[in-house]
Amino acid sequence: MRSPATIAKAIVAAVLLAIPCLQYAAEPLAAQPAVSESERTFRDFSFSPGQPDGATTALRVRLASPLPRDKVRAVTIYLKSGDGWYAAPVGAADAFCGARAVRISLQGFAPEGNPGAIVKSSLIRVSAWKRADFTNEIVLAEAAFDGPARIAIVRSTERSAPGETALAVEMADRCASIVGKTGRDFDFISDEDFARLKGRGRDKAMPSLAFLPYSPALSDDDAKSLAAFAEAGGRLVVFCCANRKLGKALGVEPGPWRSSGKRAFTAMDCEPLLGGQRRIPHFTEGVIPPHPLPDGGAEKIATWITEYAKPTRQVAATLAPCGAWFAHIPPRAYPAAVDFLDAIMTALVEPKPDGASAPADAAPALPQEKCPSLAAWANAPDIPAAYADRLAGLGIEALYVRRKPTDVSEPAKIPGVALHAWISCFTTEGLPPDVLERLKRENRLSATNPSWMEPTVKANGEITIRQLVKAAKSGVAGIHLDYVRTSSATPQSAEATAAITEFVREASKAVRKAKPGIVLSAAVFGTPESAAHHNQDWPTWLEEGLVDYVCPMTYTESPEEFAGYLGACLAVAPADKLRPGIGTGANESQVDAATAAAELAEVAKAGCPEAIFFTLNDSLIEVLEAFKRGE
Known about the structure:
With about 625 residues, the protein is an alpha/beta fold. The chain folds into 3 domains: about 25-145, Jelly Rolls (Sandwich); about 160-345, Rossmann fold (3-Layer(aba) Sandwich), CATH 3.40.50; about 375-630, Glycosidases (TIM Barrel, Alpha-Beta Barrel). Helices cover about 30% and strands about 25% of the residues. It contains 16 helices and 30 strands. Residues about 1-30 have low confidence and may be disordered.
């Protein structure tokens, strides 16, 4: 059987798909002054699109600096042509809060008024919709019409993800984050539009590589068309799919769904393709394993790791000349995931473009002066021995370990590491059925999520406080409060804010009475302003001494944005009361070692005594090992 490296060389040597990406230079002229309204801030820029032709499929735009993620909820791009406009909404997190180039399909623009041809637009408006007021200047650094990208990411509709379109969009966005970090351009395309493209054959509008991030109900007809696309020279990367017709085209037999048993899968070992031990954090309790078919050309390139960091032989991904197949949904864009997908795309004849970022040669070093202590949130109460034996040696001095509120067992000791019980307040997890029924009967559950108690009800707080008291007596160094807030659906109000603060006041009193001297902390939103929107007045908690310190979730992949978040916190609280969070494995960010080091430097500059990484997994271990090499 050929090795994955041999497969990759054979593919690169045998197939070269050359689809030109036509690009038309645009020269944004002097901008008009920004206009700030209650709901949005917008700015207009003159636009000279040149002479695009029928091959134009997208608008490429990039801002000179990122918009504040915590204050901008969305961005809309407008193009003015003739007597009307075209408008395309763009999610802020995946677009302009990262200050990277964004491609917007021309099909995504909806006409307003009576516009002329979109390719004859003379004005671009960047409209940032506010969560809160911001002062960042909107500066357009790049704007151009583009031809079709070589890579397409398929967003499934009801056609192939009935009842799960929101999840399908989320998975497409995950995939886009990975592809974007490799430096490659891509277009989003719906499954319906992709089906129409396939019907036109291998013309210049067709991508050379297509990602299917989530298509759980792929029809046999669409599977047949996708197989034909692969047979004609197109390449596919398929996630979490059980369609056997498409699987056969990529040399695998998918499924059936297989549970990981008592212990969940937590990572993919991608050493076979990358040539060294690299693990991608990826939590799941079940998979649809792609089993390589005899003589099908597919080979295993990744296997699963269990909760206790033990390797398995269970296949996580395969690679064949016409594509790759994954047993689960796309992982988050951890550095190892980016490198893994980069290797797959290179093998499938989509080399990284000239000028794309390359890995840094030197390992990043920790700040040498006033370097903060290092800590981490751990999502599971059982810390694998493979981690526990190395944490202190890698610089971790404290762990905030997630525990069920009903768990009162004493945690296993880790030499040199202080353990804090990280507890989600107001959750119904672990409550007896009769208590749950009573809460439901008394309308004490959250109106938006019945898995949670309504946090503004005093009696619900009393349930959580009893749980906190028991945890405080279990031998931990501290109690760490989470979800001490209202949901995003609850309006900001003085009454709700007062109710949450009163809960913290009573919890502080009870926990400290149960165990004098115990450390009490809380995970909070990354800025006082964003916290206030969830009725979380953590500056008052610190002012009254209700908690010893707070841990702002300052998760971002931009060190500049991180510094802005931290500055907002320092404006209302002393540095010694802050333990900023660095998102190595958060939904919002999966920072690499270089970015983590830059953000740690900001923590050191601010004088905060500790920084906390979210979360303890293989990617964080990789970051910490890079720090160790850089010392």
